[in-house]
Design the sequence.
């Protein structure tokens, strides 16, 4: 806790806050250990591409900047 928060909080409040911090850190450690032991199949990066994305356009469409018929 910062020095300025020490002046604003009473001893009992500081103790409660420190207990909450300790509990949160303990739970975070448990989550990390659990993940190390049983990695989730859902974790990892997800890439989304919108249906109108230029990445889905053909080379000709990208060069023309349009998805209109390029055969004309």
Sequence:
């Amino acid at each position: 806790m910062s020095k300025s928060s020490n002046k604003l909080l009473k001893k009992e409040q500081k103790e409660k806050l420190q207990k909450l911090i300790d509990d949160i850190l303990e739970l975070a450690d448990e989550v990390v250990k659990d993940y190390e032991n049983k990695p989730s199949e859902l974790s990892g990066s997800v890439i989304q591409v919108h249906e109108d994305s230029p990445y889905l356009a053909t080379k000709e469409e990208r060069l023309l900047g349009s998805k209109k018929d390029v055969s004309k």
